[in-house]
Amino acid sequence: KTLLQTAMLAVADLLNSACSSRFSAAKKYPVSVMGDFCDSKSKIITNEFVPFLAKALESSTEVFDRIVVLTAIGSLGVEEIVPVLLPVIRGNGKYDDTAERIRAILSLQRVVFTAPEKIHPILASLAANVGERPEVRMASLGLLLMSNAPQSVWQKFAASSWFEPSRQVGSFIHTLIHSLSKAPSTTPLLADLVKK
Question: Is 90 exposed, middle or buried (0-12, 13-18, 19+ CB in 10 A)?
Fold first, then answer.
């Protein structure tokens, strides 16, 4: 079982580095000699590995096993993982564990940069849902921040923090915004976030 989990994680990372970014693949593999191995829409990913991981997620009975599979799914970094992750993110059915829901949210980390228009609404609705667990809301907010969400999203959360029923989430939003306002603009992403 441990060997299978290690293999899933390694293959997911390999597919991400070889297929997701042409620049990344050219740095690690002899693409100039051999040509492109694959891209993010290759059948090996969309028709074989994503369904394999989805089946492994569905058949896992232990939370730890599902968290490992969720990590492998997130390592792929392709849009096709979103429908697989949504039931876990929403806490549907057997996916009610807070740790695995947070792992599913964080598994969107690579996809949020390639498809922000698809991921930002999911994260924003989770973060704004006051009936949701604070940990899930804070994971969503953290990923929204990291993905450079539009300024309107941050204005909405800054204003809502005044009336936030969860002290934990309210404090998280306040600390997040305060820390960003004091952060040095050392990278273009950070500089853009500080401006917002």
Answer: middle
CA distance 173 to 181: 12
Residues 6+ apart with CB under 8 A from 151: 196
Angle, in degrees to the nearest 10, between helices 151-160 and 116-128:
0
Are 191 and 185 within 8 A, CB to CB? yes
**CA 66, CA 53: separation in Å to the nearest integer?**
10
* Cβ neighbours of 77 (radius 10 Å): 25
Contact 101, 67 (CB under 8 A): no
CA-based nearest residue to 101, from 134, 130, 131: 134
Residue by residue, pLDDT tens for the chain (196 residues) are 889 999 999 999 888 887 776 656 555 655 555 656 677 777 888 899 999 999 999 999 999 999 999 999 999 989 999 999 999 999 988 888 999 999 999 999 999 988 999 999 999 999 999 999 999 999 999 999 888 888 888 888 888 888 889 999 999 988 888 887 777 776 666 666 666 6
Cα-based torsion angle of the residue sequence 85, 100, 73, 48 in order, rounded to the nearest 10 degrees: -70
Q: Are 8 and 56 in contact (CB under 8 A)?
A: yes
